[in-house]
Specification:
By secondary structure, this protein is mainly alpha-helical. It is 74% helix and 4% strand. The protein contains eleven helices and two strands; from the N terminus they run H-H-H-H-H-H-E-E-H-H-H-H-H.
Length: 276
Amino acid sequence: MSTFAFFISVLLASIVAGMLGSMLGLGGGIVVVPFLTLAFGINIRLAIGASIIAVVATSSGAASAYVRERMTNLRVAMALEVATVTGALTGAAVGGLISVSLLSIVFGIVLILAAAGMLRRRADHGAAVPPSRLADKLRLHSAYYDVQRNEVVKYRVTHVPAGAVMMYVAGAASGLLGIGGGVFKVPAMDLAMRLPVKVSSTTSNFMIGVTAAASAAVYFGRGDIDPLIAGPVAVGTLLGARAGARLLPKLSGGLVRILFVIVLVLVGLEMLRQGI
Protein backbone atom coordinates (compact mmCIF):
# COMPACT_ATOMS: atom_id res chain seq x y z
CA MET A 1 0.00 0.00 0.00
CA SER A 2 1.29 3.46 -0.92
CA THR A 3 1.95 6.11 1.71
CA PHE A 4 -0.95 8.19 0.41
CA ALA A 5 -3.39 5.26 0.59
CA PHE A 6 -2.18 4.44 4.09
CA PHE A 7 -2.68 8.07 5.17
CA ILE A 8 -6.24 8.22 3.78
CA SER A 9 -7.22 4.84 5.26
CA VAL A 10 -5.93 5.75 8.71
CA LEU A 11 -7.54 9.21 8.48
CA LEU A 12 -11.00 7.80 7.65
CA ALA A 13 -10.82 5.14 10.36
CA SER A 14 -9.69 7.76 12.85
CA ILE A 15 -12.67 9.99 12.03
CA VAL A 16 -15.00 7.12 12.96
CA ALA A 17 -12.92 6.41 16.06
CA GLY A 18 -13.02 10.04 17.12
CA MET A 19 -16.79 10.21 16.68
CA LEU A 20 -17.37 7.07 18.77
CA GLY A 21 -14.78 8.13 21.31
CA SER A 22 -16.31 11.56 21.90
CA MET A 23 -19.86 10.20 22.17
CA LEU A 24 -18.98 7.32 24.49
CA GLY A 25 -16.19 8.99 26.46
CA LEU A 26 -13.66 6.34 25.39
CA GLY A 27 -11.10 8.48 23.59
CA GLY A 28 -11.11 6.62 20.27
CA GLY A 29 -8.25 4.32 21.21
CA ILE A 30 -10.47 1.24 21.35
CA VAL A 31 -10.95 1.57 17.58
CA VAL A 32 -7.62 3.05 16.53
CA VAL A 33 -5.35 0.48 18.21
CA PRO A 34 -7.08 -2.64 16.81
CA PHE A 35 -7.41 -1.03 13.36
CA LEU A 36 -3.71 -0.21 13.11
CA THR A 37 -2.59 -3.59 14.43
CA LEU A 38 -5.11 -5.81 12.66
CA ALA A 39 -5.52 -4.00 9.31
CA PHE A 40 -1.94 -2.82 8.78
CA GLY A 41 0.11 -5.12 11.01
CA ILE A 42 1.63 -2.19 12.89
CA ASN A 43 3.41 -3.07 16.12
CA ILE A 44 0.97 -2.62 18.99
CA ARG A 45 3.38 -0.37 20.88
CA LEU A 46 3.45 2.12 17.98
CA ALA A 47 -0.33 1.80 17.63
CA ILE A 48 -0.79 2.59 21.33
CA GLY A 49 1.60 5.54 21.01
CA ALA A 50 -0.51 6.95 18.14
CA SER A 51 -3.65 6.26 20.15
CA ILE A 52 -2.33 8.27 23.10
CA ILE A 53 -1.99 11.27 20.77
CA ALA A 54 -5.47 10.54 19.37
CA VAL A 55 -6.95 10.55 22.86
CA VAL A 56 -5.60 14.05 23.49
CA ALA A 57 -7.06 15.19 20.16
CA THR A 58 -10.46 13.61 20.89
CA SER A 59 -10.67 15.23 24.30
CA SER A 60 -9.62 18.62 22.95
CA GLY A 61 -12.10 18.45 20.09
CA ALA A 62 -15.18 17.53 22.13
CA ALA A 63 -14.57 18.66 25.71
CA SER A 64 -15.13 22.36 25.03
CA ALA A 65 -18.51 21.68 23.39
CA TYR A 66 -19.70 19.51 26.28
CA VAL A 67 -18.56 22.05 28.87
CA ARG A 68 -20.36 24.79 26.97
CA GLU A 69 -23.57 22.72 27.01
CA ARG A 70 -23.08 22.07 30.77
CA MET A 71 -23.22 18.29 30.34
CA THR A 72 -19.75 17.81 31.87
CA ASN A 73 -19.49 17.70 35.66
CA LEU A 74 -16.30 19.69 36.17
CA ARG A 75 -16.25 19.23 39.94
CA VAL A 76 -16.32 15.44 39.60
CA ALA A 77 -13.60 15.59 36.92
CA MET A 78 -11.28 17.72 39.06
CA ALA A 79 -11.91 15.62 42.18
CA LEU A 80 -10.92 12.39 40.40
CA GLU A 81 -8.15 13.62 38.10
CA VAL A 82 -5.33 13.12 40.62
CA ALA A 83 -6.13 9.42 40.94
CA THR A 84 -6.41 8.84 37.20
CA VAL A 85 -3.20 10.71 36.34
CA THR A 86 -1.30 8.73 38.99
CA GLY A 87 -2.62 5.53 37.44
CA ALA A 88 -1.65 6.70 33.95
CA LEU A 89 1.98 7.20 34.96
CA THR A 90 2.00 3.75 36.56
CA GLY A 91 0.53 2.08 33.48
CA ALA A 92 2.86 3.84 31.06
CA ALA A 93 5.90 2.73 33.05
CA VAL A 94 4.73 -0.90 33.23
CA GLY A 95 3.74 -1.03 29.55
CA GLY A 96 7.31 -1.29 28.32
CA LEU A 97 7.86 -4.47 30.34
CA ILE A 98 4.97 -6.54 28.90
CA SER A 99 5.08 -8.67 25.74
CA VAL A 100 3.01 -7.73 22.67
CA SER A 101 0.78 -10.83 22.85
CA LEU A 102 0.09 -10.38 26.55
CA LEU A 103 -0.68 -6.71 25.95
CA SER A 104 -3.27 -7.69 23.31
CA ILE A 105 -4.89 -10.19 25.71
CA VAL A 106 -5.00 -7.61 28.51
CA PHE A 107 -6.54 -5.14 26.06
CA GLY A 108 -9.31 -7.60 25.13
CA ILE A 109 -10.08 -8.55 28.74
CA VAL A 110 -10.31 -4.90 29.77
CA LEU A 111 -12.85 -4.15 27.05
CA ILE A 112 -15.05 -7.18 27.77
CA LEU A 113 -15.07 -6.50 31.51
CA ALA A 114 -16.12 -2.92 30.85
CA ALA A 115 -18.93 -4.14 28.57
CA ALA A 116 -20.13 -6.57 31.23
CA GLY A 117 -20.27 -3.75 33.75
CA MET A 118 -22.37 -1.61 31.46
CA LEU A 119 -24.79 -4.48 30.81
CA ARG A 120 -25.52 -4.51 34.54
CA ARG A 121 -26.05 -0.77 34.43
CA ARG A 122 -28.96 0.48 36.52
CA ALA A 123 -31.73 2.46 34.83
CA ASP A 124 -31.27 6.24 34.79
CA HIS A 125 -34.31 6.60 37.03
CA GLY A 126 -33.77 3.48 39.12
CA ALA A 127 -33.04 3.01 42.80
CA ALA A 128 -32.49 5.96 45.10
CA VAL A 129 -28.91 7.22 45.29
CA PRO A 130 -27.30 6.58 48.72
CA PRO A 131 -26.32 9.80 50.53
CA SER A 132 -22.67 10.84 50.51
CA ARG A 133 -21.23 13.41 52.91
CA LEU A 134 -18.09 13.76 50.80
CA ALA A 135 -20.11 14.45 47.65
CA ASP A 136 -22.18 16.98 49.60
CA LYS A 137 -19.06 18.69 50.94
CA LEU A 138 -17.46 18.86 47.48
CA ARG A 139 -20.77 19.95 45.92
CA LEU A 140 -20.60 17.28 43.23
CA HIS A 141 -24.36 17.05 42.63
CA SER A 142 -25.57 18.82 39.52
CA ALA A 143 -28.05 18.90 36.62
CA TYR A 144 -28.06 19.21 32.83
CA TYR A 145 -30.57 19.87 30.08
CA ASP A 146 -31.30 16.73 28.03
CA VAL A 147 -32.19 17.75 24.48
CA GLN A 148 -33.49 14.31 23.56
CA ARG A 149 -35.84 14.17 26.59
CA ASN A 150 -36.54 17.92 26.51
CA GLU A 151 -36.13 18.29 30.26
CA VAL A 152 -33.65 19.23 32.95
CA VAL A 153 -32.15 16.10 34.55
CA LYS A 154 -31.06 16.51 38.17
CA TYR A 155 -28.75 13.91 39.69
CA ARG A 156 -26.83 13.19 42.88
CA VAL A 157 -23.34 11.70 43.24
CA THR A 158 -22.33 8.97 45.69
CA HIS A 159 -19.48 6.52 46.52
CA VAL A 160 -16.71 9.03 45.79
CA PRO A 161 -13.85 6.95 47.36
CA ALA A 162 -14.85 3.88 45.31
CA GLY A 163 -14.94 6.06 42.22
CA ALA A 164 -11.43 7.34 42.98
CA VAL A 165 -10.07 3.77 43.23
CA MET A 166 -11.67 2.86 39.91
CA MET A 167 -10.21 6.04 38.40
CA TYR A 168 -6.72 4.91 39.39
CA VAL A 169 -7.38 1.65 37.54
CA ALA A 170 -8.76 3.66 34.60
CA GLY A 171 -5.61 5.75 34.48
CA ALA A 172 -3.42 2.65 34.59
CA ALA A 173 -5.41 1.20 31.68
CA SER A 174 -4.87 4.42 29.75
CA GLY A 175 -1.12 4.41 30.23
CA LEU A 176 -0.82 0.68 29.62
CA LEU A 177 -3.20 0.26 26.68
CA GLY A 178 -3.50 3.70 25.11
CA ILE A 179 -7.30 3.73 25.35
CA GLY A 180 -7.85 6.89 27.34
CA GLY A 181 -9.15 4.97 30.34
CA GLY A 182 -12.74 5.70 29.29
CA VAL A 183 -13.65 2.02 29.40
CA PHE A 184 -13.23 2.24 33.18
CA LYS A 185 -14.05 5.92 33.75
CA VAL A 186 -17.52 5.68 32.25
CA PRO A 187 -18.56 2.57 34.26
CA ALA A 188 -16.98 4.04 37.41
CA MET A 189 -19.08 7.19 37.21
CA ASP A 190 -22.12 5.47 35.75
CA LEU A 191 -22.28 2.46 38.08
CA ALA A 192 -20.40 3.36 41.26
CA MET A 193 -21.01 7.11 41.48
CA ARG A 194 -24.48 7.03 39.86
CA LEU A 195 -23.97 9.78 37.28
CA PRO A 196 -26.31 9.65 34.25
CA VAL A 197 -24.72 7.90 31.27
CA LYS A 198 -24.42 11.09 29.19
CA VAL A 199 -22.75 12.93 32.07
CA SER A 200 -20.43 9.97 32.61
CA SER A 201 -19.43 10.02 28.92
CA THR A 202 -18.88 13.77 28.69
CA THR A 203 -17.01 13.98 32.00
CA SER A 204 -14.83 11.03 30.97
CA ASN A 205 -14.11 12.78 27.68
CA PHE A 206 -12.98 15.87 29.59
CA MET A 207 -10.67 13.82 31.82
CA ILE A 208 -9.05 11.51 29.27
CA GLY A 209 -7.04 14.24 27.60
CA VAL A 210 -5.22 15.07 30.84
CA THR A 211 -4.71 11.38 31.59
CA ALA A 212 -3.30 10.69 28.13
CA ALA A 213 -1.02 13.72 28.22
CA ALA A 214 0.48 12.44 31.47
CA SER A 215 1.50 9.16 29.83
CA ALA A 216 2.37 10.54 26.35
CA ALA A 217 5.75 11.79 27.56
CA VAL A 218 6.69 8.27 28.65
CA TYR A 219 5.77 6.79 25.25
CA PHE A 220 7.59 9.59 23.44
CA GLY A 221 10.72 9.00 25.51
CA ARG A 222 10.64 5.29 24.62
CA GLY A 223 10.34 6.10 20.89
CA ASP A 224 6.86 4.55 20.64
CA ILE A 225 5.29 7.54 18.87
CA ASP A 226 5.81 7.55 15.07
CA PRO A 227 4.76 10.92 13.50
CA LEU A 228 3.78 9.22 10.21
CA ILE A 229 1.22 7.14 12.12
CA ALA A 230 0.23 9.57 14.86
CA GLY A 231 -0.29 12.47 12.41
CA PRO A 232 -3.30 11.17 10.43
CA VAL A 233 -4.68 9.53 13.57
CA ALA A 234 -4.68 12.85 15.45
CA VAL A 235 -6.26 14.79 12.57
CA GLY A 236 -8.96 12.16 11.97
CA THR A 237 -9.92 11.77 15.61
CA LEU A 238 -10.13 15.55 16.06
CA LEU A 239 -12.57 15.85 13.13
CA GLY A 240 -14.61 12.89 14.36
CA ALA A 241 -14.69 14.21 17.92
CA ARG A 242 -16.24 17.48 16.81
CA ALA A 243 -18.94 15.61 14.89
CA GLY A 244 -19.62 13.31 17.83
CA ALA A 245 -19.97 16.27 20.21
CA ARG A 246 -22.80 17.63 18.04
CA LEU A 247 -24.55 14.25 17.87
CA LEU A 248 -24.46 13.07 21.50
CA PRO A 249 -27.03 15.53 22.97
CA LYS A 250 -29.60 14.23 20.46
CA LEU A 251 -29.19 10.55 21.43
CA SER A 252 -31.00 8.72 24.23
CA GLY A 253 -29.04 7.42 27.21
CA GLY A 254 -30.09 3.88 26.41
CA LEU A 255 -28.74 4.09 22.87
CA VAL A 256 -25.42 5.48 24.12
CA ARG A 257 -25.13 2.54 26.51
CA ILE A 258 -25.93 0.00 23.76
CA LEU A 259 -23.31 1.52 21.45
CA PHE A 260 -20.80 1.41 24.29
CA VAL A 261 -21.37 -2.31 24.93
CA ILE A 262 -21.37 -3.33 21.23
CA VAL A 263 -18.10 -1.54 20.46
CA LEU A 264 -16.34 -2.93 23.52
CA VAL A 265 -17.42 -6.54 22.97
CA LEU A 266 -16.55 -6.68 19.26
CA VAL A 267 -13.14 -5.08 19.63
CA GLY A 268 -12.35 -6.96 22.84
CA LEU A 269 -13.06 -10.37 21.29
CA GLU A 270 -10.94 -9.62 18.24
CA MET A 271 -7.99 -8.46 20.31
CA LEU A 272 -8.26 -11.57 22.49
CA ARG A 273 -8.19 -13.73 19.36
CA GLN A 274 -5.09 -11.97 18.09
CA GLY A 275 -3.31 -12.19 21.44
CA ILE A 276 -4.03 -15.88 21.91
